[in-house]
UniProtKB/TrEMBL annotation:
UniProt keyword Ribonucleoprotein, yes or no: no
Superkingdom of the source species: Eukaryota
Bias kind Basic and acidic residues: ranges: 148-157
Descriptive protein name: Esbp6p
Transmembrane spans: 210-233, 254-279, 285-302, 314-335, 341-361, 373-393, 427-449, 491-512, 518-540, 552-573, 585-605
Keyword field: Membrane, Transmembrane, Transmembrane helix
Length: 673
């Protein structure tokens, strides 16, 4: 390999040191030229011109070296991004990168059905090829289980599987059993394991459209009526804090009610998912709708604080989880390639609901002078919109409910959902901690903004307008986050947005005192503050195997839920009412620190993701190099490919080297991941 090629791969690690040494040499030469001897005697003009010429040439040399290093780094990054783009047309890769809870449920169901059939296992060498003769049932099942475990533990085997079994829809309409595939093999692509209809034996991929857009609108309605409506609680909180609605209640009581709804919405998500598998999707959502209507109606008649805890806190939180969790499992059955677009449209409901219910709540509070009719109208409107969504919602390939007659099956569902093996995987814990800090800061900022505006002398109308603007910006920002994550990399976009949020907390929120300043702050923050809600599921999909997705998703949800319970309580505890200039300063600083912690965690997670991706490509490159060495190629194109492979090998050996410098080099390596 040429010297230029070696310089290419030492670019990232040697650029700074070489540049600094060059600069140091220039400085030292300049210091020598101004010695006592040179001062004592005049310097000839020719020597002055020569010194200036040497300095200029050295500076030009440094500039050229820096330019070459940057070009080489860009070439290396472009090569990695090109490899990522080459997999963008692979249906199996698309599914694994956008794996969702519904896919995990369907995969679990298909494998459960297959295990009950207890069909003798045979093996294939290519997808759709004929299989060898079956062996005995018991020994075969044990052998396959061991082979599967060993296969998944081997990175090289996984790489070879992706090469030998590319996801293809060429035979999607053929009967799989007629092709000899009677059971999911260890080498079976995930797309076949998820979307194979066990009743027909056919591979049925999502249509990416059609009635799926109606389903998208239904999910939009559920998000609009659950999390969107709950986002307007900041207006209620400001009203409770400024009016003696419930005698004897402190600001911590109202803050705890605000945290209770978010706490239950996250904590109960895994339990609701298991309940949905037992009693069915529509039954779960209808039960949640009844609980929601009862919660708001009963809350309008409350006269004591504990009654408000039970209704607007506990019952509303339970109803949110019972409604929105089942609804989100329907979309993945209708969309695969356009899943990010459909998810983004459905997430518009959260921001739109916050805008509509935030302004409506403030208007009703000012007209009625209390929360009674406000709560009744909100409860009736939300329950009706959820009923419309349930009526139009349709599962493309519904997974049959287990029912209440089989306690063992019910226990298996809970066991699969709450498997603690995922705790042993450090990256799952990292995702959970990142989500906890980011979501904690998000809730603290959203629920505090309205109260902060009132403390600065603004009216309740202005405060509710800020909340509406914030939620409206979220309705635009959340879909764009998903699309940007698919294009530029989920971890990359998450780091950029978390960095911006950290800057906004310290540089924009703290100095903002006027209504106009807070408007701009609400627009900027609202466009990126929902990053935790959008990215948590897809980051889990990027890091874990499909079989481990459900327990990992459940762990991320219930791990940080207790901290969300006391989120607004902490914000109120940090409030200094005697500080008239800015009573919420400590809460603002704490919120910014939470985003800093989230930024550090997502950076560590990005390094792990890059290391995992580069390790995979390094193994693939080494495998291809072995093939090249075992073969003879004389064409120019073959020589060109050989040179590219050697360049990749050198690059991956450099980036995956040991040491703290290489660790931070991987963390900032600007590839799509």
């Amino acid at each position: 390999m040429s010297t230029h090629t070696n310089d290419y791969f030492s670019a990232s690690s040697g650029m700074v040191s070489e540049t600094s040494s060059e600069v140091s040499s220039i400085n030292s030469s300049q210091r020598v030229s101004f010695s006592k001897a040179s001062i004592a005697a005049p310097v000839p003009c020719s020597d002055l011109h020569s010194t200036k010429s040497n300095d200029a040439s050295r500076k030009l040399s440094i500039s050229r070296k820096l330019t070459n290093r940057l070009n080489d780094i860009k070439k290396a990054v472009d090569d990695d991004n090109l490899q990522t783009e080459e997999n963008s047309a692979d249906v199996n890769k698309i599914l694994e990168s956008r794996f969702d809870v519904a896919d995990a449920i369907r995969l679990q169901h298909n494998e459960s059905v297959q295990s009950k059939l207890n069909i003798p296992v045979t093996h294939t060498t290519t997808a759709g090829a004929s299989l060898s003769a079956p062996s005995s049932s018991a020994s075969s099942a044990s052998s396959i289980q061991n082979d599967t475990t060993e296969h998944k533990a081997s990175m090289d085997s996984k790489l070879m599987r992706n090469r030998l079994y590319p996801a293809s829809t060429k035979h999607s309409g053929k009967d799989l059993e007629a092709q000899g595939i009677t059971e999911f093999e260890p080498d079976e692509p995930t797309v076949k394991r998820v979307f194979t209809n066990k009743s027909t034996g056919q591979l049925e991929l999502p249509p990416d459209g059609g009635y799926g857009w109606v389903v998208t609108f239904c999910v939009f309605l559920t998000m609009f009526s659950t999390w969107g409506c709950n986002a307007s609680f900041g207006v209620d909180l400001a009203y409770y804090l400024n009016h003696d609605t419930y005698p004897g209640a402190s600001k911590y009581d109202y803050a705890l009610i605000a945290g209770l709804t978010v706490f239950l919405g996250q904590l109960l998500s895994p339990l609701v998912m298991a309940l949905m598998r037992i009693i069915g999707l529509r039954t779960t959502m209808l039960f949640g709708d009844v609980v929601m209507l009862a919660a708001y109606l009963l809350a309008s008649f409350t006269t004591k604080l504990w009654q408000l805890y039970v209704t607007q806190g506990f019952m509303v939180g339970c109803s949110i989880s019972l409604i929105f969790v089942p609804a989100t499992t329907v979309l993945p059955g209708w969309f695969l390639k356009k899943r990010a677009v459909a998810m983004g449209v459905s997430l518009l409901g959260t921001g739109a609901g916050g805008v509509v219910y935030g302004l409506a709540t403030n208007k009703m509070l000012s007209d009625f002078g209390n929360t009674r009719w406000c709560l009744r109208i909100i409860g009736i409107s939300c329950s009706i919109s959820v009923l419309v969504a349930i009526a139009l919602l349709k599962e493309r390939n519904p997974t049959p409910a287990i029912g209440l007659r089989s306690p063992r099956a019910m226990f298996e569902q809970l066991k699969a959902m709450f498997s603690l093996k995922v705790i042993t995987k450090p990256f799952v814990v990292l995702i959970a901690l990142w989500f906890m800090f980011a979501f904690f800061a998000y809730n603290m900022m959203v629920f505090t903004l309205s109260s902060y505006a009132i403390s600065k002398g603004l009216s309740s109308h202005d405060a509710s307008t800020l909340t509406a603007i914030l939620n409206g910006s979220q309705s635009i920002g959340r879909p764009l986050m998903g699309l940007a994550g698919d294009k530029f990399g989920r971890a990359n976009v998450t780091i950029v947005l978390t960095t911006l949020l950290t800057i906004y907390m310290f540089a924009f929120w703290i100095p903002a005192h006027t209504f106009v300043q807070l408007i701009f702050f609400s627009i900027l923050v609202g466009s990126c503050v929902g990053v935790a809600n959008v990215m948590n599921t897809v980051l889990i999909a990027d890091m874990v195997k499909p079989e481990e997705f459900l327990p990992a998703w459940a762990f991320v949800n219930y791990c940080g839920a207790p901290f969300l319970l006391v989120c607004e309580v902490i914000a109120q505890a940090l409030t200094v009412e005697k500080d008239k200039s800015n009573p919420y300063l400590h809460a603002q600083i704490f919120c910014g620190c939470c985003f800093i912690a989230a930024l550090i965690l997502i950076s560590i997670l990005r390094e792990y993701s890059i290391r995992m991706k580069l390790t995979e490509r390094q193994a693939m490159t080494n495998e291809k190099l072995k093939e090249w060495k075992a073969s003879e190629y004389d064409t120019d194109s073959a020589d060109e490919d050989w040179g590219k492979l050697k360049e990749r090998k050198t690059k991956y050996d450099l980036l995956l080297g040991p040491g703290i410098k290489k660790y931070f080099l991987r963390m900032v390596y600007p590839m799509k991941v």
